[in-house]
Specification:
Layout lengths: L15 H20 L1 H4 L12 H14 L3 H23 L4 H22 L6 H11 L7 H26 L7 H17 L4 H17 L2 H23 L9 H19 L1 H8 L9 H26 L2 H6 L1 H8 L1 H16 L12 H23 L6 H11 L19
Helix pairs in contact: 1-4, 1-15, 1-16, 1-17, 3-12, 4-10, 4-13, 5-6, 5-18, 6-10, 7-10, 7-13, 8-9, 11-13, 15-17
Length: 415
């Protein structure tokens, strides 16, 4: 008997709710990537607050409460879900799931490293690929182990990293990585608003190397991502997303619990900042733990809410634009980095100086609206986004059809 030929996921095999959730997360990533630049890439000292510092401060608190960390958590869980789903489908076809997935992840790793060092210092693709390699080892793990370790890493990786940093820092001294990061943020302001691309690349390399992966910070980041991957794989094994209509009542019951608990937990830090409160002595770690758990729980609440809305045909049609953007998530993510270059940095309009919380949200809404419109136009004519099509071609070794055949436009993307 001839071995099965591995092929990309067909349009009819897609789970439409996943694309809608992915589109929502994509908007959140865009919003926080613009807003968050002045928190970990460049110094906020040079910002011009066109709408006033008070409005910026309060919207910044709301941004941190509602979206910071949540979009990335949602994307990470979707990645873990997709890994488990892809592995099962390839196994069912008799294909070499491990070999195909390895090739897919290595391609993503190369793309992510190039993206991080040449275009955008906040790249997530390389980290997903690195932890995707680790995720391959968990395919046969017990379901409970996936959830238990996923929760431990999602919340505990940060505290392990802080302990590691404290252990390597001499008493009474500031951690070296903090000194390097502060100096780098101050230095990058002029570089990012300048027009020297060589200097820009050197700063991206410094950001990725001495300031991140040469310190515990990078490994905290990777560990947290892996934890969220494992939670996503656990969700796949429950079978809820594969049959959302069958489990609709369960989603409705879970929604107020997840959203309520997530909003309370995620709001701990912003509320303490707004009220200028300090943690109780001996319980300094509790606000950070609440925030990390809140990121995960609120992300699940957002996903659950979108699934509930999708049970209504009216809402499903209204959310179709999110689904189109989510179906082209890789293409849209890369385009967002080009927008950063052309709009924010000195190679283009140089609007980085105005990228406070208010302007960040406004720019994110405009850019994402254009991406939704373009994604709908593109997918009415083509089966995959351009980057997704190339990724599939490289992964499976043969070119998948790109153009839609007559009658395919508007076909549902639901399994």
């Amino acid at each position: 008997m001839r071995p099965a030929t591995a092929t990309p996921t067909a349009v009819s095999e897609r789970i439409g709710e996943l694309d809608i959730i992915r589109g929502f997360a994509l908007f959140g990533v865009l919003w926080i990537n613009i807003f968050g630049q002045t928190e970990y890439i460049i110094s906020a000292d040079g910002l011009v607050h066109l709408w006033g510092e008070t409005a910026d401060r309060w919207l910044g608190l709301v941004s941190n409460w509602l979206m910071a960390g949540k979009a990335q958590a949602l994307f990470s869980m979707l990645f873990g879900f997709g890994f488990a789903m892809m592995s099962d489908r390839l196994d069912a076809r008799g294909a070499a799931a491990g070999r195909i997935y390895l090739r897919r992840v290595l391609i993503l790793l190369g793309l992510g490293v190039a993206h991080m060092l040449l275009l955008w210092g906040g790249d997530i693709l390389h980290a997903y690929a690195l932890m995707g390699l680790v995720l391959m080892l968990t395919r046969r793990w017990p379901t409970r182990l996936l959830l238990a370790l996923g929760l431990v890493l999602s919340v505990g990786a940060t505290f392990a990293g802080e302990a590691w940093l404290a252990a390597i820092t001499p008493e009474g001294q500031e951690p070296v990585v903090h000194v390097l990061t502060e100096a780098g943020m101050a230095r990058r302001w002029d570089v990012f608003l300048g027009q020297d691309y060589g200097a820009y690349v050197r700063e991206l390399i410094a950001l990725a190397g001495p300031e991140f992966y040469a310190s515990p910070l990078g490994y905290v980041f990777l560990g947290t991502i892996l934890g969220r991957f494992l939670v996503g794989s656990w969700i796949y094994r429950q079978g809820w997303m594969q049959e959302t209509a069958r489990h609709a009542a369960g989603f409705r019951r879970a929604l107020p619990v997840l959203l309520g608990a997530g909003l309370v937990l995620a709001g701990t830090g912003p509320a303490m900042e707004a009220l200028q409160l300090e943690p109780v002595a001996g319980a300094e770690a509790l606000p950070a733990a609440a925030e990390l758990l809140g990121q995960l729980v609120l992300a699940l609440g957002y996903g659950c809410g979108l699934v509930v809305l999708c049970q209504s045909d009216m809402w499903r049609r209204r959310l179709a634009g999110l689904g189109a953007a989510g179906q082209m998530a890789l293409s849209n993510y890369l385009v967002q980095s080009v927008v950063f270059m052309l709009v924010l940095n000195g190679f283009g309009l140089g609007w980085l100086r105005y990228a406070d919380a208010v302007a960040s949200l406004g720019l994110a809404i405009v850019v994402f609206a254009v991406q939704v419109l373009f994604s709908r136009w593109w997918l009415a004519r083509f089966r995959f986004g351009p980057a997704e099509w190339l990724w599939r071609w490289a992964t499976y070794g043969h070119r998948p059809p790109l153009r839609r055949t007559t009658g395919m436009a508007g076909a549902p993307d639901r399994a």
